[in-house]
Amino acid sequence: MKNLRTIWVAAGMLLLGNAYAQQNTDAGYKRTLREVLATIETQYGVRIKYADSLVAGKWVTYADWRFRNDVEATLDNVLAPLDLKVKKEKDKLYKLSVYEYYRWTVADGWAELDRLAAQYHNREEWEQRKSVLQPCLLEALQLQPLPAAPKSQPIVTAERKFNGYTVRNIAIEILPGVYINGSLYKPAKYKGKIPVILNPDGHWEKQRYRPDCQYRCAALARMGAMAFSYDLFAWGESLLQFAQEDHRRSLAMSVQVLGSIRILDYLLQLKDADTARVAITGGSGAGSHTVLMAAIDNRIKVSAPVVSLSSYFYGGCPCESGMPIHSCGNRTDNVEIAAMTAPRPQLVVSDGKDWTDKMPEHDFPYLQKIYGYYQQSGQVENVHLPAEGHDFGINKRTAVYRFMAKHLGLQLNAIQDAAGNIDESTLTIEKEQALYVFGDKGEQLPANAIHGFAQLEKIWNTK
C-alpha cells in the first residue's frame, strides 16, 4: 500500500510538473482556447456560447498575461489575435464568432468618416478628392478598362400584360457565356421617352421573385418608368451557371458592377429610354451596389439606397466589400462613396434595427455638408424609420415611390387611392417560374453558357 501511494504521488507531481513546464516563455505560456474560455467563465462569472469548430485546435499564447480586470478587455486580448470576437447577447452571456472585418463599432466608424471629412472643406477640394476616388474604384474592381462586350443580342421573352403595365424577361450576355437575367416592367400606355430605373436584387430569400420586388417594379412602371429587376451574381437564374457559394467570392462584386453597366448599355439604347432620367434603387446588399453604381457611372442621375448605408458597416458579403475599393484614396468608406453622387438627387432610407440605425445622427449630416458644397443640400434626403427593421417593406417602398416621382417626373397618383395613400392591391404577383428567361428547369440556357467559377476566372483573367 505504501508503494502504491508513492507511485500516485509521483505521478501527480509529474503531471503538475508538466503543466507548469508549459507555462513559461519557452512554451509561450500557451493554453488551449477552450481552456482559456473556461477560465474566463469561472473568473468573471459569465457564460460564453460557441460552436466546437470555432475553438478546435486553437491555442492562446501568453494566455494568462492577457487577463485584465474587465471581462470584455480580456476577451478582446484573447480573441483578437485569433480573428475571433464575441457579441454580448445579454448580461453575462456572450456568443463567440469570427472576426467581421466589415463591422466596426459606431465610434470607430464615425471617427473614420470624420478623418475623411477633414481632408476637404469646399467644393474644389471635394472635387479633387472625388477625382482620385472614381478611377480608383474601377481599377480596384478590375474594370479599368471595361472588357469588350459580347456581340450577341439580348434574349427577350414574350410580353405579359397586366393592369397598367407590361413585363418581359430579358437575359443579357455580359461576358462570353456569362448571362445576367431580369424582368423589364413598362407602362401599358405611354408616349415618347420614359425614365429608366435599375432595381438590383438584395440578399433576401427568393431573390427578385419576392413580392416586394414585383410590387416595386410594377408600381414604378405604372407610374410611367421602365423598371428593370435583375439577379445579382450566383443568385436567381445565375445559379444555372454558378454555385450559390460563388456569390460570396470577391469577384462577384466586379461581375455585378459589370452586369449593371451592361444592363444600362442595353436599356439606354432603346428608342423609348430617356437618358436624362436614369435612376437606381436597391435594398441591403443591392443598396451597397446602388451606392457604388451611382458613384462610378455618371449616367445614373437619381439613386435610392435602402437599409444599407452606414459608416460603421462596409457590407457583410464579399459581393459588397470583397474587392479592395475601400483602400482607394488612402482608405474610404461607403458614406464617402455615397457622397460622390452629389449633387445628383439621392434618397437614403434607414431603419432602427440594423447598421443604419444612427443615420440621422452623424452620417446624413455629413452627406448634407457635401451636397452643401454645391448649394444643393435639399437634393439629398433621409427617410428614417426607427421602429422598423431590415427589409424593403411598404414604408420603404413608399419613400422610394415619392422620391422617384419627385425627381423623375412620374405620376404618383397612378398608385394612390382616393385618400392619397399608396395602393399596391391591383398589382399582380406572378409565380417565380413566370419570371424565368431560360425555362422552368433551365432547359433554354444558351449552348455557349459557361458552368462553374473556374471557367469564369479563366475568361476574366484573359479579358
TrEMBL record:
Q: What InterPro entries does UniProt report for this protein, alphabetically? A: AB_hydrolase_fold, FrsA_esterase
Using the record, list the residue span of the signal peptide; answer none if the entry has no such feature.
Answer: 1-21
Record key words, sorted: Signal
Top-level taxon of the source organism = Bacteria
Q: What is this protein called?
A: Acetyl xylan esterase (AXE1)
